[in-house]
Amino acid sequence: MARLSERMISLGSDRSEIREAFEYGRCRAAVVGAENVFDFSIGNPSVPAPVGVTELLGAMVAREDPVLLHGYTSAQGDLSARRALADNLNARFGTSYDEDCFYLSTGAAGALCCILAALTCPGDEFLTFAPYFPEYKVFVEGAGGKLVVVPAEIEAFQIDFDACLALLTPNTKAVLINSPNNPSGSVYTKETIEKLSALLRAKSEEYGHPIWLISDEPYREILYTETPSPWIPSYYANTLVSYSFSKSLSLPGARIGYALIPKEVTDFPAVYAAVCGAGRSLGYVCAPSLFQRIAASCCHLTADLAIYRKNRDLLVTSLRGMGFTCVEPGGAFYLFPRALEPDARAFCLRARAHDLLLVPSDSFGVGGHFRISYCVPTERVERSLEKFQALAAEYR
Ligand code: PLP
User: Which residue, of 281, 298, 315, is where some domain finishes?
Assistant: First the structure.
């Protein structure tokens, strides 16, 4: 028997509940036809990439020098791409970033893994707030840290500050937030960010070391709120940002995003070097070069977000009418209603009998809820409503 890493065997064999539902959907589609499976399991954007992206892609592939197009770039990313990303953020958020603040990555996942590997020392704990993206546990543990989950504040999916305070310790290296949130769709208010920033400043001082704030923002532009979402580094200096073009430009398979390390952070040169070193040790070499250039030229664009808003409105209104309780999402493309029985897994299994593929909330760190990923064609949402109705009727 080969001696292998038990941890890697376990990670490779235990599929996430999201993937499991997605794979089940594929098998089921082969039996009943894809149009009869209502797959709300995965966050694969249904809206095409903006025309600007596809036109530029075509033009680049047709015309450009292959070395420029497909060659290696600097490890931290092409200089002009990093400059363009800095200009974009500066114009939107009144900041003064430059090319040296960016490390281009394979999506937000790549950026997060580099940031976590850069920060983690033995014994470090990383706090996050339920409900949270389940891969956080994999990423934090992969970097050698421990994920500590603050229980959810289920009325609005903001932050339960008493619970947070109780879990902060001198071992807390960073707090990891995600707003707009996967899976709740909640957007942290300015008040929440101000309160969290004040708490982390006080605790950093008390413990005598910085508590980093890692802001994971793949849904930054997918917002339904009137007021813009707060730009977190403006509230808390020791913020490191992970970003992705997977959702805003509908390019999840292109694997392009970045880590932003503002120069205001404590020991900026060392932190930036550590992020680059992490990317090197993880074997990332450089982010996909073609999509570095696409992201740089198209970072001012978004896919057509109106479709997500329409799906959100339709689902929130219809499900509430059927007796479901759900917080109205302020962003992203997920809805996180309460299940109609305490056991979310049992509820989602009953939903499967109606060919409704939903993800139970347990792996997001909360019981009794389920996630609907509504980045699907509106027509599918419309046809699914009678299925939700039939499911709800079983509980009356
Ligand atoms: N963070 C969150 C909260 C996500 O929902 C996702 C993907 O769904 C990621 C990170 C990873 O995204 P990427 O495709 O950019 O690696």
Answer: 298
Q: Which residues contact 53 (CB under 8 A, 6 or more apart)?
A: 249, 251, 294, 298, 301
Judge whether residue 263 has pLDDT over 90.
yes
- Ligand 1 geometric centre to CA of 395 (Å): 34
The C-alpha atoms of residue 280 and residue 272 are separated, in whole angstroms, by: 13
- Asked if residue 108 has its Cβ within 6 Å of ligand 1, the reply is yes
Q: Which of 15, 73, 33, 67 is nearest to 292 (CA)?
A: 73
CATH number, domain with residue 226: 3.40.640.10
* CA 355 / ligand 1 centre spacing (Å): 26
Ligand 1 midpoint to CA 56 (Å): 24
The DSSP code for 369 is: B
Q: Report whether residue 373 contacts ligand 1, using a CB cutoff of 6 Å.
A: no
The token pair that represents 292 in the structure block? 């570095």
What SS3 class is residue 331?
strand
For residues 272-288, one letter each, b for 16 or more C-beta atoms within 10 angstroms of the residue's C-beta and e for the rest, the string is: bebbbebbeebebebbb
Together in a domain, 191 and 236: yes
Asked if residues 375 and 40 have their Cβ atoms less than 8 Å apart, the reply is: no
Q: To 10 degrees, the CA torsion angle through 41, 47, 53, 57?
A: 70
Please tell me the pTM assigned to this model.
Answer: 0.97
Number of domains in the chain: 2
Distance CA 251, CA 107 (A): 9
Q: What is the pLDDT of residues 312-362, one digit of tens each?
A: 999 999 999 999 999 999 999 999 999 999 999 999 999 999 999 999 999
Cβ-contact 343, 9 below 8 angstroms: no
Where are the alpha helices (H) located in the chain, listed in sequence order? 6-13, 17-32, 51-63, 66-70, 79-93, 107-119, 135-142, 161-167, 190-207, 268-281, 289-298, 306-321, 344-352, 378-393
β-bridge pairing 257-260 and 239-244: antiparallel
Q: Are 153 and 327 in contact (CB under 8 A)?
A: no
Domain hosting residue 32, numbered range: 6-50+304-393
Q: What's the pLDDT tens digit per position in 222-251?
A: 999 888 889 999 999 999 999 999 999 999
